[in-house]
């Protein structure tokens, strides 16, 4: 699929990398997010030498790997010349252990027979909701990301394995801080399904004989892609917990009104 007309497209990179930028989104005050500052992607270890050269040409100064140690060990990040590269897991469990959120791990979690009614769509929805509800709150990884943004250590890239869940929420929070609309935040989140379409379709084609096709399809779309309404759910939970995005950004990420204004003045045009 040709994604060149979709928002955030970066030329010279395969769609499967889910590599894109956040520039160009309009904000409530009529300004626009600057191009060439914030990049998001899946695992960099999947990039070809030519793609890595293209990525290096972006002049990245900071790369945040949101994967757990297990994921990073399986497919280490290549060295990006000129960039500081660190890894902080974007998902932790209640005992503060790193959680593997690769597509294969999510699929295994969703089909875990110990879950109640694992064959029901409602059960899948509940399991995915449980995963997402833990991502936006009390995140060491996202606090570090915003510290680098405030320090103007840009251009920067943040990524996980598929560039969709941990990365997708991180992108939503950046756009939120810059004053982008809810709809554009959700649209950016959902673009994963466009960029990863070939992988989603390949996985669907690999399961033709399974029963309960509707449930299997939802399992695959939730693990290989994203369910857009879960992006909406994250925003809703933020509003329910804090009353407003401003209060969330202040309490969770340390962005009071003065710092938020400075951030917008720096990264909007």
From TrEMBL:
InterPro entries: Prot-tyrosine_phosphatase-like (IPR029021), Tyr/Ser_Pase_IphP-type (IPR026893), Tyr_Pase_AS (IPR016130), Tyr_Pase_dom (IPR000387). Gene3D superfamilies: Protein tyrosine phosphatase superfamily (3.90.190.10). Residues 140-199 form the Tyrosine specific protein phosphatases domain. It holds the Pfam family Y_phosphatase3. PROSITE patterns: TYR_PHOSPHATASE_1, TYR_PHOSPHATASE_2. One of its GO terms (molecular function) is phosphoprotein phosphatase activity. Belongs to the protein-tyrosine phosphatase family. PANTHER family: TYROSINE SPECIFIC PROTEIN PHOSPHATASES DOMAIN-CONTAINING PROTEIN, TYROSINE-PROTEIN PHOSPHATASE. This is Protein tyrosine/serine phosphatase. It comes from Slackia heliotrinireducens (strain ATCC 29202 / DSM 20476 / NCTC 11029 / RHS 1) (Peptococcus heliotrinreducens).
